[in-house]
Amino acid sequence: MKTNSEVLTEVESRKLLTEWDVPQNSHGFAATKEEALVMAEKMITTLVMKVVSSKIVHKSDFGGVKLGLKNVDDVANAYDEIMQSALSHQVREQDIEGVILQEMVEAVQEILVGVKRDPVFGVTIVVGLGGVWVELMKDISLGISPLKEKDILHMLQKLKGYPLLNGYRGQAKGDINALVQLIKKVETMALHNQHIAEMDLNPVMVKREGEGCLVVDARIVTG
Ligand code: ADP
Ligand code: MG
User: Fold this and answer.
1) N or C: which end of the chain has fewer CB within 10 A?
2) For residue 16, pLDDT beyond 90
3) By three-state DSSP, how is residue 50 classified?
4) Which residues' Cβ are closer than 6 Å to ligand 1?
5) 60, 131, 132, 49: which is closest to 89 by C-alpha?
6) Ligand 1 closest atom vs CA 202
7) What's the CA gap between 199 and 220, in Å, rounded?
8) Of residues 55, 60, 62, 66, the one with CA closest to residue 97
9) Which atom of ligand 1 lies at the shortest distance from residue 57's CA?
10) What single-letter DSSP state applies at residue 8?
11) Angle of CA points 134, 136, 137, to nearest 5°
12) How far apart are CA 90 and CA 136, in angstroms?
């Protein structure tokens, strides 16, 4: 039986990822609408706002993710809509910590990277196409730690959707090398931190070849 297991919010999960140097998009936490607006005034890029609450695990199910915010008005409206939506889903106001504002990232492909600590096999890693494809195609690939870089590449190549990362029909190629490095870091993080029971990085935005990849959502379970 697992005891004292805790699901960290995106903000808390990102803190852990930062400690281990896992690449993420730029982001900041705002506890109030005023703080969010101050952050938005300094914005130089399109933003995303998400609800932060330990009671909300799947933020978009609660209307808690607003994409494509281009100015302060967009940010103000997104804040109001997110709060309204959370309350209408029976989340109490005192259970909402605030919002996370972050850079909106365009990707060649969204990928999910998952980690589980298995009682028999130890650290296991799962990769798959992010977004709707995962649910639709059940297209995932599994690996058991320790994994060399070439093993991780092989896991990716086993995905039916791998061509989408590799320049399918003249589309841009994704930065597969950066993705392999990211997965390697995540594996190291799990191997060295016994408190991490599970990690769900979904999505990881894989940008064009040479441009890297960034985690834009993270959920870590400790325990
Ligand atoms: P959830 O808790 O519902 O998984 P996510 O943070 O993953 O919330 O957001 C839902 C979806 O919104 C993602 O799958 C992704 O397609 C999109 N998204 C989230 N953050 C960003 C971002 N920073 N840039 C671009 N798209 C994003
Ligand atoms: Mg997500």
Assistant:
1) N
2) yes
3) strand
4) 25, 48, 50, 58-60, 65, 67, 102, 104-105, 110, 131, 202-203, 216-217
5) 60
6) 7
7) 4
8) 55
9) 2
10) P
11) 70
12) 29
Contacts of 122 (CB under 8 A, 6+ apart): 144, 145
d(CA 66, CA 202): 16
pLDDT in tens, 56-108: 999 999 999 999 999 999 999 999 999 999 999 999 999 999 999 999 999 99
Tokens of 166: 């590799």
Taking the whole predicted model, whether its pTM rises above 0.90 is answered as yes
Nearest atom in ligand 1 to 131's CA: 14
With the C-alpha atoms ordered 135, 52, 21, 125, is the resulting torsion angle positive or negative? negative
d(CA 170, CA 3) in angstroms, rounded, equals 50
Q: Which of 217, 220, 221 to mutate to test the pocket of ligand 1 (most atoms within 8 A of CB)?
A: 217
